[in-house]
Amino acid sequence: MTPTPLRSIASKLPAGMLYGGDYNPEQWPEAVWSEDVRLMREAGVNLVSVAIFSWAKLEPRPGDYDFGWLDRVIDLLWTEKISVCLATATASPPAWLSRAHPESLPVDVNGTRLSPGSRQHYCPNSRAYRAGGRRLIGELARRYAAHPAVALWHVNNEIGCHTHECFCEVCAADFRTWLRARYDTLEELNESWGTAFWSQAYGEWAEILPPRKMPTFRNPGQVLDYARFMSDALCDLLAGEVAAIRLVAPEAKVTTNGMVFHRPADYHRWYREVDIAAWDSYPDPAGGIDEVQAAAFTHDLFRGLRGGQPFMLMEQATTQVNWRATNALKPPGQMRAISFAAVARGADAVMFFQWRAARAGAEKFHSAMVPHFGTEGSRVFREVCALGAELKKLTGVCGARVPARVALLVSWENRWALEVESKPMAFDYAAMIRSYYGALWDLNVAVDVVHPDAPLEAYAVVVAPALYQLTRGQAESLRAFAQRGGALVMSYFSGVVDEREHIWLGGSPGLLQDVLGLAVEEWQPLPAGESNALVVAGRTEPVACKIFCELLHLRGAEALATYAHGFFAGRAAITTHRFGAGEAIYVATEPDRTWLTTLMSDVLERHGVKAPVVAAPGVEAVVRVGEGMEFLFLINHRAELAMVELGEWSGRDLVSDQACTGTLSLEPYGVRVISRARDREVSAVPRLPQASAV
Ligand code: GLA
Ligand code: ZN
What is the pLDDT of residues 370-419, one digit of tens each? Predict the structure, then answer.
C-alpha cells in the first residue's frame, strides 16, 4: 500500500496536514481582512475555502463581474502563504437569476415551487442555473487557476443538501430521457416496474411522470428509478462544474464537500468525478459514543470512495452549531479529540465552518474559529491555535493508509430500495449498519466501508447488514469469498429482491441460500419496546433481540442461538454454515449490541483479525501505515481517565514527544499518536475508481 499524500494528487497544496476553514470575507469590511490573515497565521491555518456563497457579489448583475475584492483577498492570503481552495461560487444563485428564470426554482413533491431568499434554491436540472454557473466558473478559472495560492477547487457546496429532488416539468422530461437510456423499450420498463399491478401500464413514454404526491403507495420501481435519476442529475451538475473548470484549466484539481451517509447522493459514483474526497462532519457533542461512531463510519466511507486515499475533513464546528433543536457546546478537549479521530481514519485535512463567526444572517449562532467574543482570552481560539500547532507535528502521517481486513458492504442503491415505502416495516438502513459498525468500533478493528460490488480479496471478514437488494454479481462475489475461506456475516432482510425490486422467489437470502445454508419463510417485525430473546448455546442468561425476527428453514446451517418466546421458540435465530474453506454466519434478528459485539469478536478471532491494543471502552485505536513508519492513534472520547495496554506497541508520541510503552493512562479527551518504524509490507491495494466521461 503506497502512501498517497494529498500533495501527490494536488501539487499546489501546502505540505503537511491541511488546517483552516470556510472563509467568507465578503461578510466583512476590508479592514477586518488583514486581522483575519494575521490571526490565521497565529492559528497555523494553511488553507481556506473562499467564495462558496459569493455569486451575488462576484456577478451583481447578469454578465457584470466584480473580481476586484476577490483579487485582493487571495493576494492578501498569499502574502502569508495561506493557500486557497477556491469555490465555484454556485451554491446560492443570485436574486436576479431566480427573477429572470423562475423556472430555475425547484418544485417539491406536492407541486409547490420553492422561493429564493435562502440558499440552494435551484432545480438541479435547470438549464438557466447550470449555464449561469458555468459562465461564472469559466471567468473564475481564467482569472485564478494559475494563481500560486489557488491549490484546489471547491465545487459548489454540499450538493443535494436541501434540494435533493425536484418534480418540475424539466425534471419530468429529463427523467423520461434517462429512462429511455436505461430501458430499450417501453415493454421492458413496464416489466421492470411491474405495472401489471393496479393497471399502471404505460402505452407511451410521454405518459410517464416523476413520482409526485399520489393517492396512495407509489410504484416502487418508479420511486427507485427516480432516486437513481436524481442522484445522477445532481452528479451531472457536479461533473458539469468540474468540466467548466477543466475546460479552462485542464490541470486543476477539484473536490466537493459531501455530507454523512446522505441518502439522495450516491457518493460511490459522485466521487469518481473529483480528485479528492471530502466531507462535513457535525456529530452532536452531547450524543456520546453513538455520535462518535457515526462520524467514524462516515470517515471510513469517505476513505473508501477514492480507493483508500486520504480525504479532507472539509467542515466541522469548533463548538456549537445552530441547526439542532438544542445546540450543545464542545467542552474543552472534545474538538481536539474529534479532529484527531478524523485524522486517525485517513483525513489529511482538518477544516472548519467557518473562520470568523458571522455577525448577521441565519448562521450567526454557529461557532467559528474566531468567535464573536474575540480572540483575546478566548477558550475556543486558544484550542484552535493549539490544534493548529499539534497538527504541524503530524506531517509524517500525511498520505499514510489505514489497512483493514474487514469490509462492511454498504450501497446507496440498497438504501434506496430498502427504504422505499410499503415494506414489512419502516427500515432504517443507516441504523442497521451502525449496529455492526458500532460492534467493530468497540472492538477497535479497522473496517473498510465498501460497495457490495467491490473486490473482496483483501478481506478476511465481510459484513453485509441488510443487503436487501442482491444482484447476481454480488451473490457470485460473496459465494467466491466464502469459498476461498472468508467469513461472511449477513443480517436479516438480505437477498430479498433484485435490482428491479422483484422478489427472489423461494425465500431470502435468495441466491445466497446455499452459502448461508438456510432459507427464510416468514418474519415478524416488532414495534418499539417489544422484544423476543435468544437462547445462546453455552450461556445461561437469554439475550434480548428486537426490531425484526425471521423464521428460518435450516438447510445445512447450524444454530448458534434460538428464539426463546412465542411460536418462534426453539427455532434458529443465529446460524453458522461451513461453505467451501470459509463460513457464513446469518443473524436473523437484531440482537442486543453487547452480545452482537461478542459474536463479532468470536468471528474475528476465528479469522485472525485483532485490535492493535487493548483499550478501555470509549477509547478509539486506529493504525495508519506510511513509508517505513506506522502510527497508532489513541483517542479517549470520554470525559474520564482511560487505560490502554500497549502490548507490543511502543514508540514516541508525536503530539507530546514522550516515549510510550506498557500501560498508558489517557486523560479525558486525551490523544496520542505513537509512531514506530515498520519493516513489513501491507498487502492490500484497493482499486481506485475511474472518472466517468463528462
Ligand atoms: C454545512 C454548510 C455550511 C454551513 C454549515 C453549518 O456544512 O456547508 O455552509 O451551513 O453546514 O453547520
Ligand atoms: Zn426540476
Answer: 999 999 999 999 999 999 999 999 999 999 999 999 999 999 999 999 99
CB of 158 shorter than 6 A to ligand 1: yes
What confidence tens digit (pLDDT) does each residue in 20-76 have?
Answer: 999 999 999 999 999 999 999 999 999 999 999 999 999 999 999 999 999 999 999
Q: Are residues 273 and 211 in the same domain?
A: no
Amino acid 171 reads: C
The ligand whose atoms approach the alpha carbon of 113 most closely is 2
Domain termination site, one of 606, 626, 641:
606
One domain for residues 599 and 651: no
Residues 576 and 465 in one domain: yes
- 401 falls within a domain: no
Does ligand 1 have an atom closer than 6 angstroms to the CB of 262? Answer: no
Our answer on whether the CB atom of 282 is closer than 6 Å to any ligand 1 atom is yes
How many angstroms separate the alpha carbon of residue 362 from the centre of ligand 1? 11
Q: What 3-state class would DSSP assign to 27? A: helix
Name the residue range of residue 593's domain: 406-445+461-606
534, 545 Cβ separation under 8 angstroms: yes
Residue 686 pLDDT more than 70? no
Residue nearest to atom 11 of ligand 1 (CA): 353
Judgement on whether residues 63 and 137 belong to the same structural domain of the protein: yes
In a domain, 450, yes or no: no
Same domain, 260 and 153: yes
| Strand partners of residue 258 | 279
Cα of 471 from ligand 1 centre, angstroms: 36
Tell me: do 346 and 206 sit in the same domain.
no
What's the pLDDT score for residue 451? 98
353 Cα to the center of ligand 1, angstroms: 6
Q: 186: number of CA atoms within 13 Å, CB side? A: 11
pLDDT digit string (tens) for 85-100?
999 999 999 999 999 9
**pTM to 2 decimals?**
0.97
Catalytic residue numbers, as ranges: 158, 315
Do the domain assignments include residue 253?
A: yes
pLDDT digits (tens, 9 = 90+) for 178-236: 999 999 999 999 999 999 999 999 999 999 999 999 999 999 999 999 999 999 999 99
Distance CA 402, CA 399 (A): 10
Give the atom of ligand 1 at the shortest distance from the alpha carbon of 317: 12
Pair (164, 248) in one structural domain: yes
Residues 265 and 187 in one domain: no
Residue 155 is placed in which grid cell?
465545487
- Cα distances (angstroms) measured from residue 672 to each of 268, 435, 638, 676, 677: 32, 27, 14, 13, 16
Question: Is there a domain that residue 105 lies in?
Answer: yes
